[in-house]
Amino acid sequence: MSSSIFRPGFLLVGLVATAGFTLVASAVRAQVKPNDGLVAGEVAPKLVAQQFKFTEGPAVDKAGNVYFTDQPNDKIWKYSTDGKLSVFLEKSGRANGLYFDKQGNLLACADEQNQLWSIAPDGKVTVLLQDVQGHRFNGPNDLWIHPTSQAIYFTDPYYQRDYWTRKAPDPNIGGQKLYYLPKGQKQPQVADDQLQQPNGIIGTPDGRQLYVADIKANKTYRYQIGTDGKLTNRQLFVEQGSDGMTIDNQGNVYLTGKGVTIYNSAGQKIQHIPVPAEWTGNVCFGGKDRKTLFITASESVFVLPMQVKGVQ
């Protein structure tokens, strides 16, 4: 998830005003070359809308609808499977990273007050976490929920926000860490305290491995997840950091930043998707068949048809 606000320096054409937001009829020019059967043909990401200030945190529900944040404007939006945009939640706690639990609640890294939220389908908010050992978090950023244990893994980097009154992190929290919260517990446990600035996070659908980006170190690591939820065997996955990330049904990992870069499970780069924005914040798979790559990029959101499917 992102550290600051970027503005894309590109020109798009074919704008059509519809229901209070801007749609784009034509695809952007930068095309993606097919590679290993990932992208569905020689196409380019299609702009859905660019009415936002900075988009982030896409997450998909059971039906395939994608929810994403416009953090500076303090809103969570919904992009439905029929291509319609609507506001899901105003006053979202400056939500950043999002993820759905098995009960259909939308969990959010709400860093206005440095909290983790659970948002029910009707929009009712429950605060899950607001401190650790009596100290304020740096600013929860991105999260992933284990498919079996339902433990919550989340990153807590420090990025100064203009809506905060504080100007420095709590020195008593002791760094920028990766945490996990076992189901039913009220205090998180430290999963890794040896990262410079942990950011994007995603796990495998079997619940055995976790990928975490250290964006400041420009590295992404892979961990083994034990039956007790603890992480072991941290290994360097690739020499590239990432903002948000996702994974497909072939085990490929999608990293963001300058466009979307795809690596196979062995850490080999197999594809790069150009995105016409200064910064690509995050990505997930949506749609009824989970074959639509949904991309949040600066002031815009894009979609790209894929041959592979998402697993989250």
Structural summary, described in words:
By secondary structure, the chain is an all-beta fold. The protein has one domain: 6 Propeller (Neuraminidase). The protein has strands spanning 15-18, 21-24, 46-49, 55-60, 66-70, 75-79, 85-90, 95-100, 106-110, 115-119, 125-129, 142-145, 152-156, 177-181, 189-192, 198-203, 209-214, 219-225, 231-238, 245-247, 253-257, 259-263, 269-273, 282-286, 292-297, 300-305. The strands form seven sheets. It has a four-stranded antiparallel beta sheet with strand order 3-26-25-24, with no helix packed on it. It has a four-stranded antiparallel beta sheet with strand order 4-5-6-7, with no helix packed on it. A hairpin with a 6-residue loop joins strand 12 (142-145) and strand 13. The two termini are 17 Å apart. InterPro entries: 6-blade_b-propeller_TolB-like, SGL, SMP-30/CGR1_Lactonase. Pfam families: SGL. It comes from Hymenobacter volaticus. Residues 54-298 form the SMP-30/Gluconolactonase/LRE-like region domain.
